[in-house]
Amino acid sequence: MEYILAPSILAADFAKLGEQIDAAAAGGAKWLHFDVMDGCFVPSISFGMPVLESVRRFTKLFLDVHLMIVEPGRYIDEFARLGADMISFHYEAAGEESAKLAGRLHELGKKAGLVISPDTPAESIKELIPAFDMVLVMTVVPGAGGQTFMPECLDKVRKIRSWIEEGGYDCHVEVDGGVRADNIAEMKKAGANVIVAGSAVFRGDAAANAAELMKALD
User: Fold this and answer.
1) What is the domain count for the chain?
2) Residue 195: which CATH number?
3) Which residues pair with 108 in a beta bridge?
4) Digit-coded pLDDT (tens) for 139-173
5) What residues contact residue 106 under an 8 Å CB cut-off, 6+ apart?
6) What is the pTM of this model?
């Protein structure tokens, strides 16, 4: 299984974003996590399409776009056009439309991810897993960086990983929230293979921090 570090640029210093992206890549990051918040689905507002377009021009890293927005189906075509490689949206926002949106992303040549918040049971999405390339289990309440990791969410990671293995699906399991060098091994053991980290990468020396997290992940 491939283990991937996906630094979240939500925690980066946008005055030197390009420099920090390069530093994270030098430390071993292969993906960038791109948190889009609309102020409706979550209370916070982050950034959107113009930033994605600029980042896509700057880097060849895999862009992992996480839509924390209402009505994600209205926007996936545009995010795909502007360079997202994977677009993940919340089951809580898409509901019965989730599989249809995954199909649309595949038509666009993109990977599709499905996200569940801490209050959503893993069982809610069990039947949807075959339609997706990744399931993202939030290990904090979505909407703000710097929160404390919720270890009880790892039970959902274990269930989802077991269902993927039982079904023989080609599907990543991603975790996002409260990642540190001293808990990343716990996430890996539970079955996560894509790890989102924001402050743990971009607070301080991004290259050294990414390398430390990759060492703990390996």
Assistant:
1) 1
2) 3.20.20.70
3) none
4) 999 986 667 899 999 999 999 999 999 999 999 99
5) 112
6) 0.96
In angstroms, what CA-CA distances link 175 with 60, 96, 133, 206?
22, 23, 14, 20
Residue positions annotated with a catalytic role: 35, 176
Boundaries of domain holding 32: 4-217
CA distance 214 to 3: 9
CB 139 within 8 A of CB 160: no
**What phi and psi values does residue 142 have, to the nearest 5 degrees?**
-65, 145
Q: Which residues of 189-205 are buried (b: 16+ CB within 10 A; e: fewer)?
A: ebbbbbbbbbbbbbeee
CA distances from 41 to 12, 16, 59, 63, 182 (A): 22, 29, 29, 22, 31
- In Å, what is the CA distance from 139 to each residue of 29, 31, 79? 20, 19, 25
Q: Cα(166)–Cα(192) distance, rounded to whole angstroms? A: 16
φ, ψ dihedrals at 166, nearest 5°: -65, -35
Give 13-32 pLDDT, tens digit per residue: 999 999 999 999 999 999 99
Residues in the chain: 218
